[in-house]
Design a protein that fits this description.
single chain, alpha+beta, Tetrahydropterin Synthase, Chain A, 3 domains, three-stranded antiparallel beta sheet, 6 helices
C-alpha cells in the first residue's frame, strides 16, 4: 500500500469517527434538551422541589439550578407582594346590613413555600385568604354600630388587619397592608342618615339665624342708647348756650337804655353798676 492509499484510508477512518462523535454529541444535546436538567427561578419567585412527587425540605432561590431529569420536578411560586380586592357583607352591632370593599396586600413567606405547596397547594388564596377575610370582617363589624363604622373607620380597619394577620399567619402568609376601600348600608339606613343630616343642618342654620337676629337687636339697642346719649349731651349744651345768649342780650338792652350818668352815692366809693332788664 502506497502512501497515497494510506492517507485516503486515514481520512476515511477519521471522517467516520468524527461523524460518530458528532452524532453522539448531537444525541447527548438532544437528550439533555429533551430531559431539561436545568431550571431557572425568576426574580420574586422560589422553587419547590419534588422527587417523584415528594416535596423536599429545601427551597430553590432565584437563579439557575440543576435538577435530576425524570426524578425531580421544580414548581415556581410567587413570593412578591400581591394585592386583592374583595367584597364582604356583614351586620353591625345595631343590626344594620353593610357591604364593604376590602383591599389586602400580602405575600407568602419565601422560606416556607415548600410547606405551603405541600399543605395547601397553589390555590392558597381561594382556600385560606378569601374565607378568612369574610370571617374576620363579619366578626369585627359586629363589634361596632353603623355610626361607629363611619366615625371610627381607622380603628375598625386596624382591628380587621390585626385579626386577619393572626388568622392566616399559621399558613405562612403575611399581611403587608389592609384598608377598607368603601362600605355602604341599606337604602333605608342611608336615607335615614341623609334625613338626619338635613335636619341637623336646618337646626344649625336656624340657630345661626337666631344668633344673628339677637346680635343685630343688640346692635340696634346699643345704637339707640348711643343716639339718646348724644341727644342728651346736645340738649344740655344747647340749653347752656341759650341761657348765655339770653343773658348777653339782656345786658345789651340795659346798656342801650343807660343815659351815661352814674348814680350818686354819699360814700367815696363808686357803686357797682348792675343793669337789670325792665
Amino acid at each position: 500500500m502506497n502512501s497515497e492509499d494510506m492517507m485516503d484510508d486515514l481520512k476515511t477512518r477519521f471522517s467516520g469517527k468524527a461523524f460518530l462523535i458528532g452524532g453522539i454529541v448531537v444525541a447527548v444535546l438532544f437528550f439533555l434538551l429533551f430531559l431539561n436538567p436545568f431550571v431557572i427561578i425568576n426574580a420574586g419567585e422560589r422553587g419547590v422541589v419534588t422527587n417523584f412527587g415528594s416535596v423536599q425540605d429545601y427551597v430553590l432561590d432565584e437563579g439557575l439550578h440543576m435538577r435530576i431529569p425524570i426524578v425531580q420536578q421544580v414548581h415556581s411560586m410567587d413570593v412578591k407582594i400581591n394585592k386583592i380586592e374583595t367584597k364582604a357583607a356583614a351586620s353591625t352591632m345595631d343590626l344594620q346590613d353593610t357591604h364593604s370593599t376590602i383591599a389586602l396586600n400580602y405575600h407568602i413567606l419565601p422560606e416556607k413555600v415548600n410547606k405551603i405547596y405541600q399543605d395547601i397547594g397553589l390555590s392558597y388564596k381561594a382556600r385560606i385568604i378569601d374565607p378568612s377575610i369574610q370571617e374576620v370582617v363579619k366578626a369585627v363589624t359586629a363589634m361596632f354600630t353603623a355610626k361607629e363604622l363611619i366615625t371610627r373607620r381607622e380603628e375598625v380597619s386596624a382591628k380587621i388587619k390585626e385579626l386577619l394577620s393572626k388568622k392566616i399567619s399559621p399558613y405562612h402568609i403575611k399581611v403587608d397592608n389592609f384598608s377598607i376601600v368603601d362600605f355602604s348600608f341599606s337604602k333605608q339606613f342611608t336615607q335615614a342618615i341623609e334625613d338626619k343630616q338635613t335636619a341637623e343642618q336646618k337646626a344649625l342654620k336656624a340657630e345661626q339665624d337666631l344668633k344673628r337676629v339677637e346680635f343685630e337687636a343688640k346692635q340696634k339697642v346699643e345704637l339707640a342708647r348711643a343716639e339718646a346719649k348724644a341727644l342728651e349731651l346736645q340738649r344740655a349744651v344747647t340749653t347752656n348756650q341759650v341761657l348765655e345768649l339770653r343773658r348777653i342780650e339782656a345786658n345789651l338792652k340795659a346798656i342801650e337804655k343807660w343815659n351815661g350818668i352814674l348814680p350818686r352815692v354819699t360814700s367815696g366809693a363808686v357803686p357797682f353798676l348792675n343793669i337789670k332788664e325792665d
